[in-house]
What we know:
- By secondary structure, the protein is mostly helical.
- It has one domain (16-152).
- The chain is 71% helix and 0% strand.
- Helix 1 runs antiparallel to helix 2 and helix 4 (105-125) runs antiparallel to helix 5 (131-152).
- The protein is flat, with a radius of gyration of 20 Å.
- It starts with a helix and ends in a 26-residue tail after the last helix.
Amino acid sequence: MRPPAAQRVALPILMAALCGVVGVGAADKLSELQLRFDNETNGVHKAKMLQRLGDAEFEEATRAEKADDYTTVDLVMEKYRDNVRAASEALEKGNPDGERHPGGYKQLEMHVQKGLRQIDELLLVAPPEFKPPLQLVRKDLVALDDKLLRALFPRRHENKPPAPAVPATPSPDSDVRL
Length: 178
């Protein structure tokens, strides 16, 4: 027995509405986390808050990528980079010795690694015109990660210059085979 025509039409509309509510709820969560992050003054707490905020930003970027909205992907990942920079600066201001007091530095560095993996995945699927902003974000995250590692392990990096940013994708001239 087939459902009446009204039910066949109402079910897809209801499902679409529920999906829209989930998207709005995620946006509200992201804006709430961003507000709390922006108002936090303690560097360690800010770095730890970035874990939840960053994960929410990654979810938003993934959702936008699935919808082929790469403008939003770029904006979200640029905001993530700016948040990492803000957390790093707050850590340095409140606790400049990352080797003796690694709280916050470790969490931030691990999340930056996660962010780099997210950027690398996005660079694989992004159309060519959207790759340059993502590559800039990746370059900035690599530099921030290097800075965090130098703060955590200063003696290991005493005589080494900062690592050059590695391109996210191999050049066509390279012999690297995947």
